[in-house]
Every structure is written in C-alpha cells, then in structure tokens.
Amino acid sequence: MAADTFSSALGIVQSSGYSIVFLLMVLEGPIVTAAAAFASSFGVFNVYSILVLSILANFIGDSIYYFIGRTGRHIIIDQYFKNIHKVALKKKIEHALHTHTMKALAIVKLIPPLPTPGLIIAGISKIPMRKFLLYSLWINLAYSLVFTLTGFYAGFAFNMIYQYVKRIEIMALIVLIVALLFWLASKMRLWGKIKRILLFKLD
Q1: How many domains does the chain have?
Q2: Is residue 107 part of a domain?
Q3: Closest C-alpha among 13, 15, 24 to residue 47
Q4: 7 belongs to a structural domain
Q5: pTM exceeds 0.90
Q6: What pLDDT is recorded for position 202?
Q7: What is d(CA 27, CA 100) in angstroms, rounded to the nearest whole number?
C-alpha cells in the first residue's frame, strides 16, 4: 500500500459519511477499509460499523464482477489476456478455480491486479453461484477483519506515538528553559564577580 495512496484515501474518508465510504469500499475495498479504520481510531467513525460495511462492500463488489463474467460478453477479459503468457495465466486461474476454489479465490483477491479479471473469470468458468457466494463471503470476512484491525491499531499506535512525542517536546522545552535560566544565573554571578574585582581595583 503506497503511502501517498493511503494518505489520499484517508483524506477523502475523513471528510465523507458512511454512505460515501461504503461506495468507495465497493470500488477499492482494502485501502479504503484501512483508511476508514485508521480514522476510527481517532473517533471519526465507529470501527464495528466500518468492519460491517467493508464485508458487505467487498462481497457486493466481488459478486458484481462474478455476474459480469457469468452473464456478459468477455471482450474485456480477452483483451486483458491477449498475449500468450497471459492466456496461459488465464488457463491456470480457471483450472485453480475449479480444483481449489476457495484457495484460488483467496489468492486472486490478494494479488494485484488479479482481483477484477480473476473474479470475472470465476463467472466465465461457471463456478457454481452458491459455492462462489459462500466462499466469497468467508474470504471477505477474513480480509475485511485483517484490514480493519491493521488500520485501527496503526491509527491507535500513531496516536500513542504522537502523544509521546508531544510530551517529549514539552519536556525538552522545560529542560531548555531550565538550562537557559542556569546559564543566565551563572553569567550574572560571573558579572557580579567581575564588577566586585573592578570596584576593588578602583578603590
């Protein structure tokens, strides 16, 4: 997850309501989930609501891609897998989806940029609908939980570190002021001694 992308997502979700966050999760689930969970650690959202929205949004998004593959034309997929290496990859994905459906779906969801074409291929391959929806629900539950916890505790840790840094800055300022006062006091004592010596010599 690129830092600039995460920062952008965080900036958007912080100024949005739950409905906008939900729509963004459908389009770009993991990074928006992590950003919203991060914001939850500062009280912007309720973290449990973000978890539920993430599960639903990812499940709906996956289902849309699956039904596109199952019912629609395959021009986009054929274009995406047009060279020989990608054709071989497509065949491997199709084989894995039929032989190890849940494991293949989990891997497809994890590796960019496979989620969109991989889920469409699941529809093209005519993976049984009930099977796909059940596995998709379990996988999205696990993924949403991981990204929500990661974002939330990252925000919590950031907040703790920020508070510690603020305390250290205050302590450093106090130490600096005390050191400055001691320095001024020593200078005044030294100046007092010089004045006494000068007055003594003048007498």
Answers
A1: 1
A2: yes
A3: 13
A4: yes
A5: no
A6: 52
A7: 26
Is the residue at 182 inside a domain?
no
**Contact yes or no for 28/139 (Cβ under 8 A):** no
Coil, helix or strand for 83? coil
Least confident of 85-89, 107-111, 149-153: 85-89
pLDDT (0 to 100) of residue 90? 72
**Each residue's pLDDT tens digit, 59-79:** 999 999 888 888 865 666 666
Rounded to an integer, what distance in angstroms lies between the CA atom of residue 138 and that of residue 144? Answer: 10
For residue 178, being part of any structural domain is answered with no
Residue 60 is encoded by which pair of tokens? 């709906």
3-state secondary structure of 17: coil
Q: What is the separation of C-alpha 126 from the centre of its chain, rounded to a whole number of angstroms? A: 33
- What 3-state class would DSSP assign to 137? helix
The pLDDT value recorded for residue 150 is 86
* 197 or 148, which is more confident: 148
**Which of 107, 8, 25 lies closest to 60 in space, CA to CA?**
25
Nearest-10 crossing angle of helices 18-27, 47-71: 40
CB 39 within 8 A of CB 13: yes
Q: Pick the residue with more confidence: 58 or 111?
A: 58
For residue 9, CA distances in Å to 104, 143, 181 come to 28, 18, 47
Please state, in angstroms and rounded to a whole number, the distance separating the CA atoms of residues 18 and 25.
Answer: 10
Q: Tokens 């689930």 sit at which residue?
A: 29
The helix-helix angle for 129-202 and 47-71 (nearest 10°) equals: 140
Residue 53 confidence (pLDDT) above 50: yes
